[in-house]
Backbone:
């Protein structure tokens, strides 16, 4: 397993807060994730939960935070943003009518 795959899956695990078995399922079956990991559509590489655990536990949360900070700084350089400049963004939301039963509706709020 190369370092890119380990860091990518470590970041995904931290973001999803999922088990290693679920992460292995995603790494084995999610096509776009496999492309991001560098596997072709015909590549049959299979990841197990134990192999992911053994490799991802070597990546600390502080390393992921430092990588995240570096990526943000490079992104700011690419778009020409300087420290202290006001950042503007646009967001869109969509409201849809659904039926949510009692305990779930409180959790959604």
Residues:
């Amino acid at each position: 397993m190369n370092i890119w795959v380990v860091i990518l899956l470590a970041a995904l695990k931290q973001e999803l807060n999922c088990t290693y078995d679920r992460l292995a399922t995603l790494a084995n079956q999610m096509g776009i994730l496999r492309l991001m990991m560098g596997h072709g559509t015909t590549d049959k590489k299979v990841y197990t939960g134990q192999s992911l655990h053994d490799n991802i536990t070597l990546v600390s949360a502080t390393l992921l935070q430092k990588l995240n900070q570096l990526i943000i700084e490079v992104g700011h350089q690419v778009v020409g943003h300087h420290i202290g400049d006001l950042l503007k963004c646009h967001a869109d939301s969509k409201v849809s009518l659904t039926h949510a039963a009692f305990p779930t509706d409180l959790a959604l709020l």
